[in-house]
Write a structure and sequence with these properties.
Layout lengths: L1 E6 L2 H14 L4 E4 L7 H17 L4 E7 L5 H11 L2 H4 L2 E6 L3 H5 L3 H8 L12 H7 L9 H10 L2 H4 L3 H14 L14
Parallel strand pairs: 1-2, 1-3, 3-4
Helix pairs in contact: 1-8
Length: 190
């Protein structure tokens, strides 16, 4: 199975890679071109990216982006509306409330322990700087493999406290039933 995706940055790509390794290791990832940031380019690029990834054999297409200062639900709805009807059944849209680092740091105690930092460093509204510092991320070394490994091991059940991650997970859970990926039930008590 091929999973197509379109993301805004390297941390987003690494998060999706970690989820693929964790939930669907037999799948092949296929990256679509990076989407533009203006509303006009996004309206054009979402359908174009879907066509590109379908032509490359993608059975599922995942779009992941940050909401930044916008309401994540409004961004999610706008992106979903930009998708052509012919591709909606193939797509999952994820919009991070603020940024993907908010998902990565949703369990502040775990990420602090994992990176040998103090929990207080991650107890901020926007943990992007703390996350990048903790992983020694630079412009030349985006640490994508390290981030993917973090995601593979992360206590994702705790990430459900972040409503935008919960929505993304719920949509992936539904799509997993249509494909040969057995993603874990994060709502099941152990």
């Amino acid at each position: 199975m091929k999973i197509g995706y379109s993301v805004e940055g390297s941390t987003d790509r690494a998060l999706l890679e970690g989820l693929r390794r964790r939930w669907c290791p037999q799948a092949q990832s296929v990256e679509g071109r990076v989407r533009g940031t203006s509303g006009i380019s996004q309206r054009r690029e979402i359908p174009n990216t879907c066509r590109e990834l379908v032509s490359k054999g993608a059975a599922l297409i995942v779009f992941l982006r940050d909401a930044n200062e916008e309401n994540w639900r409004a961004v999610l709805n706008a992106d979903t509306d930009r998708c052509c009807d012919e591709h909606k059944h193939l797509t999952v849209f994820g919009v991070c409330d603020r940024n993907v680092e908010c998902w990565m740091c949703a369990d502040r105690d775990w990420i602090a322990k994992r990176t040998a930092k103090e929990t207080a460093e991650f107890q901020v509204a926007d943990p992007k700087a703390a996350f990048e510092s903790a992983l020694a991320i630079t412009a030349r070394d985006r640490k994508e493999n390290e981030i993917a490994e973090l995601v593979q091991d992360a206590p994702l059940r705790n990430w459900l406290a972040n409503r935008s991650f919960e929505d993304f997970y719920d949509n992936l859970w539904q799509k997993s039933k249509e494909h040969n990926c057995r993603i874990e039930n994060l709502r099941e008590r152990q």
